[in-house]
Amino acid sequence: MKFLRTIAVAAVASLLALPALAQDFIAGIPRNEALIIQGTPAQNADWFNVWAPGGGGAANVNGLQQLSTDTFWFINPEGGPKAWQNALATEPPIYNDDFTQMTVKLREGVYWSDGVEFTADDVVYTVQTLMDHPGMNWAAAFGVNVASMEQPDRNTVIFNLKAPNARFHALFTVRWNAAWIMPKHVFEKVDDPLAYNNNPPISLGAYVLHSYDKGGNWTIWKLRDDWQRTTIGMDWGQPQVKYVVYRAAGNPEARVIEQRNHNLDVINDIAPEGMFSIMKDNPTGAAWLSGFPYAHPDPTLPSVLFNTKKAPFDNKDVRWALALLIDIRAVALGSYRGAANLSALATPPTGSAPDDYFVPMQDWLTNFELDTGTRKIKPYDPNISEELAKMVRPQWGDQIPTDPEQLKRVFGFGWWKQDVQAATELLQKAGFTKQGNRWMKPDGTPFTIRVQVEGDAIPTLARAGTAIAQQWSQAGIDAKVDVAGPTNGQRLGSGDFETAIFWTIETWGGHPDLSFFLDSYHSEFIKPVGELQPPRNLQRWEDPRLDEIIERNRKVAFDSDEVKALGQDFLKLAVEEMPMIPLMAYNKFAPFDTTYWTNYPSIDNPYSASGPNWSNIRYMVVSLKAATPAAQ
Amino acid sequence: MHGFLIYVLKRLGQFLFVVFTGVTLAFLIAHFSPVDPIEQTVSLLTSFGNTDPRSVELLRESLRELYGTDGSLLEQYFTFWGRVLTGDFGPSLSAFPTPVSTVIGRALPWTVGLLTLATLLAWTIGNLFGALAGYFRNNRFLKGVGVLVMSMQPIPTYIVGLTLIIVFGYLWPVLPISGGAQLNLEPGFTWAYISSVLVHGTLPALTLVCVGLGGWFISMRSLVSNIVTEDHVVYAELAGVRGRTIFSQYVARNAMLPQVTGLALTLGHVFGGAVIVEFVFNYPGVGKLLIAGIYAGDYSLVLGVTTIAIIAVAAAMFLIDILYPLIDPRVKLG
Question: Are B44 and A40 in contact (CB under 8 A)?
């Protein structure tokens, strides 16, 4: 038994020796010079060609599109009055009267990281190369728009369009990404730009590739010595962050632990529970909101989508009845544990939208009348934020604001009152009957609904779908949750769903123009069920009044005052027709660690949105301040 | 010798049949997946950016042509076999145009290294303690080990992994909980890199050992418990042979035979990856690659991984069949 004792002693000794195995977190780079951001595992880690689909999503979002690329303009969703940012262009787009020509004036003194100056040659080369290679990203979009290009001097490019398009500049305007400019002097030497991995990439941003893991777990970017010769350097000054590390930090639990161990400064998106845990127990944790619900509302609008080409969801009375059966408080608690920013309007309540749409439309919403067939009701509840606050206050106490106006910015401006009686009247108006506690359709068969959710990939929306299906079931409808997993996108596109919890509305965030999603809602793009619908109008909502709004918006300049009026027309129509039930903004839980870096964006200092895979994150990277003197 | 040759040829035929059937099934299952790689790529490219609806259909057509997903199932099946026979699985659709073999080649060493080490550790420790527990049936320490090992065995792998992450990553943060090696470390045969790989592999390996230990322990204890009651062991004890000699030469050695077979079969599985462990620890191996391939509808990649796994398992079985008559004289040929 001496042998067994030896083994036991060896095991204990091994455990005690574990701390000696600790290594520096990043080899060769001082931790206080590096900002560590949650990245995405990349299968094709060698791939840095952002213009070709080779890297899938991961290759582009691990710093490539955020730190090394540039284009004409950015719209910073949280930029307030400075939301519009000229980047490679010196001024906003210049259109001719009929929007068939767009002129861009380019900035001088911008250089690629290999010392070559950026000029109009790069722009013309980019667009022409993409159009010449149909498999490349943005190729098709340029192909359908661009007739020819002119280059009157090295700092001016004129795009002649095939047809009037007042939103052509959107192709070069970054929200998440946009058509990035290629280095002509690199790609013109390449035989096949589709098969070229562009490794190492020549950068037009303030950072350049330093090193990467061939296994796809991390990518490190280093501040350029000549950062002053980039647009971000010119406009925002010297960045203090010398290295940016994008690392795949494992499962959600591991991410929380890594941040608490100060090995992950920025988490992209975790479930509410992870966020609450960090903010409760990590004294160096920070977030967009310093108190509950902590999250940043992204300009994305999770909703209950109806397949309006499938009966009975083609009937607006049915859609409205289903909306009025929802107790949104329970959905907010079930999905986001109360941390939801509700929206009754078909635009996310974030960025400039509260001031552009939600505040001006409160009277209209409050006075909006719905005809149930037997009476008229006013379904809007402008005080829902106070009710939500009351529900979460026992847990979060003083963190919940008491000012009603502030509550509206955190929990939403209002939503629809749950009204089972009105829903009953609407269903009866639509020819439905009730047998016992079961609703029957006009043809006498039971009213069944499949509520499609993606599943674990977006847990908050899966929970919302479950809560809504339960509420519909309680009202006598046979509603079941249908988890689609990786087939979710395809099924939504081909119309293989009845209802779904997803989003078909995304906006610029920092600008009232709704064309970002709205243009694709035109009936000319609607495909029959079974064929693949272009993204956005997955509910296949068709209405001549909608087409009219879209057609008018196409002829209006981006910054025209009429844009907001048209936006309001659309939002009113969407309320009346209810083609989807807007639920809430996509609240992104992106906690920060302030051990090494401070001055993260927040609602009190809203210079940038906080999603690290968005290209706008570049504003945050260059604005951070070192928390320790060594890195200054 | 003639009998052995016929035996080998029969087993070779079985090996080829298993590989053909397995790979064909994998091909069909992968191609009947409802996930379309074209749509996954279109979704990636259009999800968050500004998307002109007119351009989406053009993009779809271009990608279909680019990825070569046109053609009937039969045509694709023959093309696939042609590629398999030359060791080329074509381009990965989710990492286009990088060849599948390159993508798998990057992940395979991580998985093979981790699983081989963990399997050998679990096998050695499980068999050692199983044999001791079977032989020294009244030893309290070994009874305790038995209870511990058997209570760990039914715990799902991800629970064990997450528990280890919480213990060694949070409560007592002494080991890395994610990745294969230190960030920004140049791969190579240097002590810095090798030690980093070992340290990063500790928790994933420990998870696999904890989960795998029970099976080996229980089976070995049962085998030994039976053997110790056999006549030759009783006779040896009565003849005054030393206990250590009886244990190592008369008992454990006889009990090892099925365990060696089991080890070879288990090692054959290492090429398929440890999906859950790699996911929990974000380990850059084949298992994680396989899941990513399934989600992306990248059937080239899925087929590449599964084909290698099928061939490896079938090859391990074939080798055992060939070696068994040489190890165990009770196996008769012909």
Answer: no
- Length reported for chain B: 334
The residues near A300 (Cβ < 8 Å, ≥ 6 apart) are A348, A503, A505, A506, A585, A586
Q: Per the structure block, which two tokens stand in for A229?
A: 């010769």
Does B138 contact A at CB distance below 8 Å? no
Residues 270-289 of B with CB under 8 A from A: 279-282, 284, 288-289
Looking at CATH, the fold of the domain delimited by A296-587 is given as Dipeptide-binding Protein; domain 3 (3.10.105)
Q: ipTM value, please give it.
A: 0.81
- For A113-155, what is each residue's pLDDT tens digit? 999 999 999 999 999 999 999 878 888 889 989 999 999 999 9
A199 has a chain B CB within 8 A of its CB:
no
CB contact under 8 A, B94 and A43: yes
Asked if the C-beta of A493 comes within 8 angstroms of chain B's C-beta atoms, the answer is yes
Q: Are A534 and B53 in contact (CB under 8 A)?
A: yes
What's A534-597 look like in SS3?
CCCCCCCCCCHHHHHHHHHHHCCCCCCCHHHHHHHHHHHHHHHHCCEEECECEEECCCEECCCE
Which residue on chain A is closest to B281 by alpha carbon?
A250
Q: Are A539 and A308 in contact (CB under 8 A)?
A: yes
- For chain B, domains (ranges, CATH) are 107-294 (1.10.3720.10)
Q: Nearest-CA distance from B59 to chain A in Å?
A: 6
Helix/strand/coil percentages in chain B, nearest 5: 75, 0, 25
Q: Mean pLDDT over residues B40-61, rounded?
A: 69
Is some CB atom of chain B closer than 8 A to the CB atom of A359? no
- Partner residues linked to A74 by β-bridges: A85, A174
Per-residue buried b or exposed e for A589-624, using 16+ beta carbons within 10 Å of the residue's own CB: bbbbbbbbbebbbbeeebbbbbbbbbbbbbbbbbbb
Distance in angstroms (rounded) separating the CA atoms of residues A552 and A554: 5
Domain positions in chain A are 70-184, 296-587
The string of pLDDT tens digits covering residues A268-313 is 888 888 999 999 888 999 999 888 888 888 899 999 999 999 999 9
- Structural tokens at position A242: 């010398």
CB-based contact (8 Å) between A482 and chain B? no
Q: Out of A175, A218, A487, name the one closest to residue B50 (CB).
A: A175
Write down the architecture of domain A70-184 according to CATH.
Alpha-Beta Complex (3.90)
State pTM to two decimals.
0.88
CA atoms of A537 and A577, how far apart (whole Å) = 14
Nearest 5°: the CA angle A500, A502, A503 is 135
Angle, vertex CA A549, rays to CA A546 and CA A552, nearest 5: 150
